[in-house]
Fold:
Amino acid sequence: MQALSKRTQLIKKKSLFISCIVPVYNEQELIVKFISVLKTTLKQLTKNFEIIIVDDGSSDNTHNLITKLCKNKNIKALCFSRNFGKENALTAGLAYCAGDVAILIDSDFQHPIKLIYEFITKWVEGYSIVYGIQKNRQIKNPIRIYFTRLFYYLIKKISRVKIPANACDFRLLDRKVIDALNRLKERNRFMKGLYAWVGFKSIGIPFNVADRKAGKSSWNLFKLTELAITGITSFSNIPLKLLSVGGLLISGFAALCAIYIVFKTLIMGIVVPGYATILVSIIFFGGIQLFSIGIVGEYIARIFTEVKKRPNYIIEEQHGFTQKML
Structure:
């Protein structure tokens, strides 16, 4: 109750410190307008806020526009030395933010800025994580729709961490959640899973995804597949266990076939084996072996990445921060 009273007082006094983390990649057409709208919204909520723009190695004029925006004291920027991916951009923003709460939001206007008011309301009610749930995913490719549903179905079945379906990165995080996430040093980061893994009281708010105001998404089927594999391998070892069970089943089937062949040979004598049967068996079991090695290889590759202990990102420039941070 005391914590809830403190949250209410922060809102009433407009002294709540809000950090907005905005990952961007080639958003020169939208970034200036978006930051202007976001800044206006935050001013209505509090006197204390910061907008941290994380430039994920943009190759257009985004970097120059961000540098100019940082002349405003409320706007800060982290510029990566190259493209490290959205998961790492969010990680950097959380590491550098100083707010009582952090709001993660994309700069393409697909996340409704006005929903921040509702996020804050739920935070005042006592929720530590408030996340947006996409009601109308802007996906026209039927293959992508199918694999998206398949991913959430699989992750629900094989992972002990409950990751809400269609939850997006658009969310509010309390300070204690931010601190918990900053303690996680893994290199293969699946942020939606990490939000769920740290726990805390959470609630989802459905919203309609708006059309992009300009440009196009940099997420293609390959990147989404790679992210899905990271999510599955980071939060479940069920695929490895299934390989063990599958190996036992196949071995058992092979033993039964051997027994059958022995008895058949004793009763009917030696029969010339069929070429097609041998060929199909070789191809089938060869495919099973390659598939199994591939799954094991995914886990080994991620172990390899972790043990190298390379940083998740490299910051080339910082703007708006009072002191240089590592």
About this structure: Residues 238-308 form one domain. The chain has eleven helices and eight strands. Residues 275-308 form the longest helix (34 residues).
